[in-house]
Amino acid sequence: MTTTTSHSTASRSLSERIADAIADMIRTEGLAPGDPLHSARSLAAEFEVTVPTVREALRRLEAVEVIQFRHGSGTYVGGGVRRRLLANPHTGGDLASVLELVDARLLIEPGIAAAAAANRNDEQLAALEATTQNALVPQRGNERPREHFHVALAAASGNALVCDTLAALLDVRSRDQVEIRRRYHDRERDHEEHIEIFRAVSEQDAAAAAELTRTHLAAIRDTVITLGEELG
Amino acid sequence: MTTTTSHSTASRSLSERIADAIADMIRTEGLAPGDPLHSARSLAAEFEVTVPTVREALRRLEAVEVIQFRHGSGTYVGGGVRRRLLANPHTGGDLASVLELVDARLLIEPGIAAAAAANRNDEQLAALEATTQNALVPQRGNERPREHFHVALAAASGNALVCDTLAALLDVRSRDQVEIRRRYHDRERDHEEHIEIFRAVSEQDAAAAAELTRTHLAAIRDTVITLGEELG
DNA sequence: GGTCATCAAGTGATCTAGTCACTTGATGTG
DNA sequence: CACATCAAGTGACTAGATCACTTGATGACC
Q: Distance in angstroms, CA of A72 to C1' of C10?
């Protein structure tokens, strides 16, 4: 229930402890993503430190998307408060790593699909169905990112941590992924396969859900390989 | 190969771009965890910004363990440079989330074990065997964290991203996990089960590796549930 | 009355210029 | 040779500014 934040040593830096305190504050006050935080100056006064110190703390939190800065406007709660797993925003990578990502998904997603089929409730099912439309309509640049079909599928497994895991995984090399999707992948086919998976989950057919997910990802994998060959 | 870091807008803050630049620098210069970075003052001079700005950038990187501060000593490369997935260090949670974690592992690790059995090479196998000893000897507080058996197992799958995923997962609520292990779990049994899984992987028996992993995690799950009941 | 430019207050972003606390390797003494 | 001492380098933090951006209120204009 309560946080076991005590990391003994007490040698943790002031800005680090303030970062924890702010994160705690967000949680205890029940703030949701988008809610405004006190200004950096106010926070500095509250914690009785100077502005640069509280800004270091905020930068820490920004890195994990717990908060979000908006220049001239304020500081807001970010989506990371609830996510327990994150994609590292500071990693480079090559095209080989895109293939590695698909392989990783191939390894874990079928099991997730099976669990979703076994455990899903009606609400999760409805949310999953809603996301099947996303494959058809390209994402607009300015609109808020929609929930991904595969994330909704993981959510239907009933385990929020599994959902976080898959979301983080999809966030890895996300730019390359959307690029591949946009330029080389068959949206129609994606959509159809999503529908089929949805149907299996709907009918609580775990084995079918797993198998359909496997073939679906295998198709994506082929696309990536083909792309790799084209680019040499 | 090359980074596609351009996030268009150019509205990204100076400290954010510097954080990227430092991460890039670490990668291009091939620095490994533990290697020293230039001092904050030097970096400030190199990037032609002031110290607080470069410190904000460094705090960002510290949050994802790409770098690490040592007061009075210097700034060093951290273990996060290579990790693509991370556990969010700023999340609270309760005991229910520990159970959720075990469930998540139960969902994805058997598949990983099977892949490890199918793809492992001799080097990975040797590394895996080495970690089987860890369950017996308690971790000393001051010693460097040892590689976890289950992480080594994921590494043997041949997919580094899968390995990162499992490592991040085990990092979630790690304090609770070690606490549970230390006080309630049967080390002997852990060790024996690890040995059995290792043997299955060694013999490239994918089905057995998956099943043994499942029962192993199920045992851990029972421990957590029992603990939950004891505490009410 | 409604639309739109203007403006001032609030906020984030960055700078400047320091002081204090800690680590570490060199120095020198016993 | 072992050990205390010390100075230089480094991170941690303070203090007080200035600039850039957003936003809601104001008020003029149509």
A: 8
β-pair partners for B116: none
Query: For residue A188, what are the contacts with CB-CB under 8 A and spacing of at least 6?
Result: A136
Residue of chain A minimizing CA distance to B92: A3
Q: How far apart are CA B225 and CA B170, in angstroms?
A: 18
State pLDDT tens for residues B166-221: 999 999 877 777 777 777 678 888 899 999 999 999 999 999 999 999 999 999 89
Do B200 and B208 form a contact (C-beta atoms < 8 A)?
yes
Which chain B residues have a beta carbon less than 8 Å from that of A69? Answer: 13
Closest chain A residue to B55, measured at CA: A56
* Spatial CB neighbours of B40, under 8 Å, sequence gap ≥ 6: B51, B54, B55, B58, B75
Q: Does domain B14-81 have CATH number 3.40.50.261?
A: no
Chain B contact for A80, CB < 8 A?
yes
Q: Which fold has domain A95-230?
A: Four Helix Bundle (Hemerythrin (Met), subunit A) (1.20.120)
Side-chain half-sphere CA neighbours of B98 within 13 A: 21
Is B95-230 the same fold as B14-81?
no
- Alpha-carbon distance of A188 to B20, in angstroms, equals 37
Per-residue model confidence as pLDDT tens digits over B56-67? 999 999 999 999
For residue B67, give the DSSP letter: E
Q: How far is it, in rounded angstroms, from Cα B13 to Cα B19?
A: 10
| Contacts with B63 from chain A: Cβ below 8 Å | 19, 59-61, 63-64
Q: For residues A56 and B57, is the Cβ–Cβ distance under 8 A?
A: no
The CA distance from A122 to B214, in Å, is 28
**In chain A, domain spans:** 14-81, 95-230
pLDDT along chain B (232 residues), means of 10: 42 93 96 97 97 98 97 96 92 79 95 96 94 70 68 96 95 78 78 95 97 95 82 64
